[in-house]
Amino acid sequence: MKDPNWVNMIKNMQEIRFFSRNLILRNKKEYEIPAQHLDLLSQLAISKRKMTPMELSDYMGLDKAIISRVIEKLNKSGYLVKEKDEIDKRRYYVSITDAGKKKIEDIYKYYLSPIYQLYRNLGDKDFENLMKYIEKANTYYHKDKETKE
Questions:
Q1: pTM (2 d.p.)
Q2: Considering the domain boundaries, does residue 2 fall inside one?
Q3: CB-side exposure of 99: number of CA atoms within 13 Å?
Q4: pLDDT digits 0-9 by tens, 80-122
Q5: How far apart are CA 73 and CA 65, in angstroms?
Q6: Number of domains composing the chain
Q7: If DSSP states are collapsed to H, E and C, what string results for the chain?
């Protein structure tokens, strides 16, 4: 780009906006779940082990009281189960159920479908390069934002 004048920059901004809009899908009723609920289920699915509320609180950076409320709602929905610790009866572990795994799998398949489509259309190398430049831009933007604060 020879001359980064405002007309060219407006065109670039429109391209970025168009690209971003294509990657974000609208909510569908069956996939609506609060972000904290999805995050907690994802943590359990990724860990592949039982976790305590305190561990989840640390991983997610949320207050234990909030984690407890989320656990109760997900337990009532059948997406996770609670198990008492055999040694310390005050302590319990939570693990994701098959219904919970199915829920997050369906949600992620839906929401990630545009990026998977982009990956398939661009191919490994071009997709990798695109992600490398996006990460570079995000790093620059983040550093620039920190210096202004």
A1: 0.66
A2: no
A3: 8
A4: 999 998 888 889 999 999 999 999 999 888 888 999 999 999 9
A5: 13
A6: 1
A7: CCCCCHHHHHHHHHHHHHHHHHHCCCCCHHHCCCHHHHHHHHHHHHHCCCECHHHHHHHHCCCHHHHHHHHHHHHHCCCEEEEECCCCCCCEEEEECHHHHHHHHHHHHHHHHHHHHHHHHHCHHHHHHHHHHHHHHHHHHHHHHHHHC
